[in-house]
Amino acid sequence: MDSTPVNWEALDALVIDFAKSENLIEDSTPSPSPSSSSSSSYHSRLLIRQIRRSLEAGDIDVALDLLRVHAPFALDDHRLLFRLQKQKFIELLRKGTQEDRDAAIYCLRTAFAPCALDAYPEAYEEFKHVLLAFIYDKDDQNSPVAYEWSERRRFDIAGLLASVLRAYLNAYDPIFSMTLRYLISIHKGFCFRQGVLSPISDLTERLLLEECDPAAMPPEIMYEASPFNEVDIQALAHAVELTRQGAVDSLKFSKGDLFRAFQNELCRMRWDVSLLDELVHEYCVYRGIVDSASTSLPGMQVMSGPADVNKSGSRWCSLQADSPEVNCGSCKVPHYEPSTGNALMDGSPEGQNAVTSTQTTEINERYPSETAGSYEDRGTSGTLQRNSLIVQQRNRNHGIGERIKRKHCRGRHEKVGLMSEVLGGSGREEAGSSYMVDGLIFREDKYDMMLALKELTGRGMASEVVEEINAMDPNFFVQNPDLLFQLKQVEFLKLVRSGDHSHALRVACSHLGPLAASDPVLLRPLKETLFALLRPNEEAFGEHLPLHALATSVQLAIGRRLGIEEPQLMKIMKATLYTHNEWFKLQMCKDRFDGFLRINLLKVGTSLLADAASMSSDTSNHGSSQATMASNSSTGQEDVGSPTQISSADVSCDENAILKVMEFLALPRADAIHLLVQYNGNAESVIQHIFA
């Protein structure tokens, strides 16, 4: 599962959009209308979270006050109002004092009983039943009103109201959040049905919870039979595991809008928000989106001195801007710039040694207790230790890897005031302690080196990347020959594009040929590479090389070499995209929602040259064809990333016949198709045979 190639650039865009939408980072993009829309959605989600927390805590009056001010339409629905008044009645009785008992009777007379008259047909019977709470104790588990006393009722009404408010306020979660929910739910279902052991089960079980919010109730005028397309009903039912009636009710609530119903159902899925934030933060640090100095990873220690306390309380630090400092709350990490940086301009060994010596001395003076232990703890080789700062300085000379200022990032605001902070979104949580990495400077050096080499690769500077990696670790490419082959491919194609064919052939003879001779799998990519010499559009072909793909391959390999673990979010995406492919192959159809959730952009092919040729031949699809591959992506394996591989059996069966068999026999799509194939596509014959 973990070998599935993923377009990490597309995932970067989704993750950044998620962080901005959830107000985890400051968005200074000068685009008033999208920013205003995003801000409105954020504050609506914030309002829903506050109402949910109030209801779950039993503070019904607080929730009612928020609804009256911000969402009075919810109280116009007497079905919701009746449930809220019933819960308020129970919560007043739960307190147990005489004063609260009197308040419960007053609520009963003035609000609860009037609502029971016209809320819905069964409301009056429920009203009479809940009056038994006066005589049965809340701790009596055998009483007829034990369920009414249960605190689980709080969570049910909170989830129901959240589902309603989310739809009416258009306060849907960011696309990334919905995409991850959808992929994980398919992954779980696929592994369960196929008997496959999931390599990410420890994460998915903790991240996506089993319980869901109750579904929103469709308007009463929609209770009659619906004219919805059966294709839409089945697509929604199978996408989010609903019964057919559940899918119909969801479409009724969304007034027939399939994608709105799909969003409603996805956002009902509950998950651990704090764990999601951790996964996203880890990914952002790894990809260079936020600063690594403030990340809370293994090896961190809590600082206790008052001078070292960072009051920001945020696990998020920053997006990239332009300055020589890192701003993380009130704590600034200075950039250590060597005083002899110009000595490296000529690349002389003497200059390199001078810089290494100067930087090491400076680090020893500033962090005397951390320098010796931090390298030893990480088990880094002597060669890597000696050349780490050299490589970083070389990258700075290329204009890469400069320590830059980051924009201030907020933590998630979970403790929101009753009115003002819901409206203004101001207010910031504070923490009494901060974290600091043991051996901060060296850890930052590792991230800087990894990200600098990734950046160089993304700019197409393949020869420079090979030189830097060889300087860092001469044995690296011995263990990663595929990566060297891909880098030399890029170098070769750049030389061909510039017209320097003789130099390109020398690269092919010196590197590509010997590598292909030692690994027969590389022969086909070698032939494809050499074929570029004959192409009339070498320039266009070369410009469309998926360099971001190779950049990620370099980052992954260098990260492993430096002891930097691959983010868990990457593992989740690889596994879930793989099972998404396999699931829709079994269903023998295309996912109707993959474009809406950007899943089609997250999937890529596996051939560097094939992707480049595809992009150069169809420039109109350039944006959606940008590829990213794993370090072994040049092996010429068959692309398993396409969800559009539909079998001939599916093509020969009429869609209406498939749906008829699915509906009458309550079968999955794949089983319905297999039955239809046996009876030449005749749905009536299949049904008659089953019921005969």
From TrEMBL:
Residues 350-361, 621-648 have a biased composition (Polar residues). Transmembrane segments: none annotated. It holds the Pfam family CTLH. Residues 342-361, 615-648 are annotated as: Disordered. Residues 44-100, 446-503 form the CTLH domain. PROSITE patterns: CTLH. Signal peptide: none annotated. SMART domains: CTLH. This is CTLH domain-containing protein.
